[in-house]
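User: Predict structure, ligand zinc ion.
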Amino acid sequence: MKLCRVGAPGAEIPAAIDAQGAIRSLAALVPDLGPEWLAPERLAALAAIDLARLPLVDPSVRIGVPVAGIRQFIGIALNYRKHAEESGQPLPSEPIVFTKAITSLSGPNDGIVMPPGSEHSDWEIELGIVIGTTARSVARESALRHVAGYCLANDVSERHWQNFRNGQWNKGKSFDSFGPIGPWLVTADEIPDPQALAMELSLNGERMQASNTSDMIFSVAELVSYVSQFMTLLPGDVIVSGTPGGVGMGLKPPRYLRQGDVLRLSMDGLGTQTQHVTMAGR
Ligand code: ZN
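Assistant: Predicted complex:
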């Protein structure tokens, strides 16, 4: 099942994608797709709905963040072998974890707005993991039971703020618009193996990142289990699970986003994103 939220920012309605790929409004049945709707029994109730009987939504509608009221947005660093190499870093012995502000969350096709004067804004295609049930100290073997589903994500990163402004990567990861996720929350039953998803990111039509979640150092199950050892994961929380090689910082010479650039991202089963890049104040 593919769930989404559509409409103007702050006024989205819940929706689902039918078998023909059309958007069907769930507004008459569900107040909004908040964390409480990610529980297995609620998702099962949604899956039982005959979407063909629900109103069609104009396909040109804006698509928002697929889950309302997300409380925690967590990033994993250097989780692909090639990206760790291009960053000049040793392979991590344990996952490297950082946070992104929830205010950075944005719709999949909303523009990326670089902070004023930014010369080092960068792209990172990632698999987003959406938590369905509270996970506290869960074992790797049972971790996937706490996952409601997956979404495509771009962990947009301002490298100067991330690396040269005295610590804590969240400085470079948290600007408004730096967390496009979606278009859909794809429930876990549609993604039987989260470690077999091909992905690709292009900049102005030129392929920059192309990889597969099979190259992850720490698997989805390992990441959920690991993070849950030191913090409680809540329904709706999103973990972006690291990016493969091909980010701008790793190119020789490095290449960063410029006003007018267009990013296009896609991942098996999770849809596509298109983002136009602008700079604040321009
Ligand atoms: Zn990242």
